[in-house]
């Protein structure tokens, strides 16, 4: 669709691999694979194992094949995916304690990778971060040239208790401080 992008495909691949039990993914920028747009392409890794590549098809390729719109696609290495897949279904009871969510929109330099931001957030989640979802990447005059806004939804939850606001704020503040220190990210009002 017109509104779909590299990030839509990345989310779909992440969800598919999560269903197969492959969760700790890394997306590494790829700029030398000629079929894809050099700035919108990434290799998919689980640890050091490459599972595939995905990206926006290069405009020259689209033109050659008569595709009149932006197009995203991916290639997955089926054998590698199946070697890592864990298709055993384990019962997990529903959580006894409620979760709480926080949305953040970060203003960063254009060259900062979304995957790097995700890694910083996960590393500093303190065991309370249960879910991290990218919901927006915006470029435009409201954020300025050479910058982008990246929006995430963070879900916090403890397995053994209801979290207090103070506990969530403490972890959330650590995450924001690390994003500021390591990626020069600032909060943008949503």
Task: Write a brief structural summary.
With 190 residues, the protein is of the alpha+beta class. It is 29% helix and 33% strand.
Give a description of the structure:
By secondary structure, the protein is α+β, with helices and mostly antiparallel strands. The chain has five helices and eight strands. Strand 2 (36-46) and strand 3 form a beta hairpin. The longest helix is centred in the C-terminal third of the chain and has 19 residues, at 165-183. The mean pLDDT is 90.
Topology (elements, then pairings):
Elements: H1 6-19, E1 25-29, E2 36-46, E3 49-57, H2 59-64, E4 72-76, H3 78-84, E5 100-109, H4 114-123, E6 129-138, E7 147-156, H5 165-183, E8 186-187
Antiparallel strand pairs: 1-2, 2-3, 3-4, 5-7, 5-8, 6-7
Helix pairs in contact: 4-5
Which structural traits does this protein have?
190 residues, alpha+beta, four-stranded antiparallel beta sheet, 5 helices, 8 strands, 29% helix, 33% strand, globular
- Number of H/I helices: 5
How are the strands of the largest sheet arranged?
1-2-3-4
Query: Unreliable runs, pLDDT <50, ≥5 residues?
Result: none
Strand content: 25-35%
> Helicity range of the residues?
25-40%
- Give a count of the beta strands, DSSP E runs of length 2 or more: 8
Mean pLDDT: 90
Report, as a whole number of angstroms, the end-to-end distance: 25 Å
Biggest sheet details: 4 strands, antiparallel
Shape: globular
Task: Return the string of H and E elements.
Answer: HEEEHEHEHEEHE
Secondary structure category: alpha+beta
The whole-angstrom Rg is: 18 Å
């Amino acid at each position: 669709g017109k509104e779909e992008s590299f990030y839509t495909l990345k989310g779909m691949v992440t969800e598919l691999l999560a269903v197969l039990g492959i969760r700790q993914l890394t997306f590494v920028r790829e700029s030398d694979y000629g079929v894809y747009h050099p700035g919108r392409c990434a290799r998919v890794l689980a640890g050091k194992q490459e599972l595939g590549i995905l990206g926006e098809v290069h405009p020259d390729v689209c033109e050659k094949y008569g595709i009149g719109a932006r197009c995203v696609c991916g290639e997955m290495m089926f054998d590698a995916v199946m070697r890592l897949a864990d298709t055993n279904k384990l019962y997990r009871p529903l959580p006894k304690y409620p979760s709480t969510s926080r949305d953040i929109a970060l203003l960063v330099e254009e060259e900062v990778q979304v995957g790097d931001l995700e890694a910083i957030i996960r590393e500093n989640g303190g065991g309370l971060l249960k879910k991290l979802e990218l919901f927006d990447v915006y470029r435009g005059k409201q954020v300025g040239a050479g910058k982008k806004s990246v929006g995430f939804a963070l879900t916090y939850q403890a397995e053994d208790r209801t979290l207090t606001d103070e506990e969530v704020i403490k972890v959330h503040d650590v995450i924001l401080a690390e994003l500021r220190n390591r990626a020069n990210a600032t909060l943008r009002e949503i």
